[in-house]
Amino acid sequence: MVSELLSIKNLSLRYPQSEVAALAELNLTVNHGEALFVTGHSGSGKTSLARLINGLGWNYYGAKIEGEILLEGQSILTQNLFSIAKSVKTVFQEPDREIFALTPKDDFLLALECRGVDQREARELLELWYEKSELKEAAERPVHLLSSGEKQKAVLACALALKPKIILLDEPTSNLDLQSTKVLLESLKEAKKEGAAIIITDHRWQWLEELIDRAALLENGRLKDLKETSVINLKTLAQKWSLRPTVENDDSPPPPPAPDGAQPFRVEGLSFAFNDKKNKSGVKTIFTNLGFSLPKESALAVTGPNGSGKTTLARLLAGLAEPSAGAVFFSGRKASKNHRLALTSLALQNAERQLAMNSAQAELAQAASASKAFSQDLENYLSQWGLENLSQRHPQSLSGGEKQRLVLACTFARKADLLILDEPTAGLDDERLSMVAEKVRQRAHEGGRVILITHDRHLVLNCCQSELKLN
Prior knowledge:
Layout: E1 4-14, E2 23-31, E3 35-39, H1 46-54, H2 56-59, E4 64-71, E5 74-75, H3 81-85, E6 88-91, H4 104-114, H5 119-132, H6 148-161, E7 166-170, H7 178-193, E8 197-201, E9 214-219, E10 222-228, H8 234-241, E11 266-275, E12 283-293, E13 298-303, H9 310-317, E14 325-330, E15 333-334, H10 337-343, E16 344-347, H11 360-368, H12 378-384, H13 400-413, E17 418-422, H14 430-445, E18 449-453, H15 457-463, E19 466-469
Parallel strand pairs: 3-8, 3-9, 6-7, 7-8, 13-18, 13-19, 16-17, 17-18
Antiparallel strand pairs: 1-2, 1-4, 4-5, 9-10, 11-12, 11-14, 14-15
């Protein structure tokens, strides 16, 4: 017998100082052991829906709520965050937001301790879930030395181990490689069998085909469509709702050319390692003797499993870190750390880390001031990135996808010799992904060089001429 777990009735959510409701006329029921997929364009209200269910909307963001939301028949609108969190666990798109300890192991044990789990059981759960998540090697490594994918796996393992009644996942595979995505899917299947309700907001659907029971579309804060996926082909919905397409025939780009002394930009003998007491040698090596060159008018994809060194390579090229050995050459000359910083424009994986001004237009103006070649009207340039009517909004008030596009717009505006984009399409739908791919092709056509760090095969095949696979 199907039993109702969550019921939302005629509900609206409006943030302070906002003239438009982020959610309106919302009606939704979710049952025990049911998996719901929620999608929609950037800014459609997906994150607000999560904030509604987990209580952050009114308890933290000060939103005004009208309507009713019941959890197992009891209203949660008068409950505090601690009470709601006993039943609802949220996994945010940016894992840094929910890691509080210095290592994944300590963070995992802290979460269980706060729930009253005794130490022996907590350590047994740690072994179990870190084995499942393939995180044992990274369990005691400082968080700042982990890749974004490793952080995301740690957060997911902790959420599933707590066995909440409702699991909210916001773009849970944005930082994960294919193998890690498969591991997550199996864990979610197990949680579903045990009666947990799973609500996933995402633009990627193919990895969820074996899990979800219903799919819903949000548009401008309203639930426009709700379909039983057991009777409707998910591919049909994907085409209708502008979801990410499946890459069925992967005609991968060729590998990057080996270091060529004639090329103005090249990497030679690059190595990186750091101290790691858990390794017998006392050192953790990320890569050694890495070499490639990148001609003008080209885009290079850097791919590989979580923890393989993709973001580390980006930091080395951009002058944010120093290699253990080797060198980076710009214009045929060995580039110092400061030289690399001056010639590179980097879009980080966590967009909000790069947003420091009080409006979207101010962010763009600051970026454009660093370029002698930028001459466009700021408002017009923002509209090219789908950010029209948002120029005076505070960057931190934007949705995840809008923040992502604002950071990308600023990165391109600098017109640097080398653009490095770290997972640039993580929170974007298919329409916005195509826009980013077109911008990359355009920048390459103008004579630029672009390096894309990504797990997104669709993006790679759309705009990259070569691929560097790290392992």
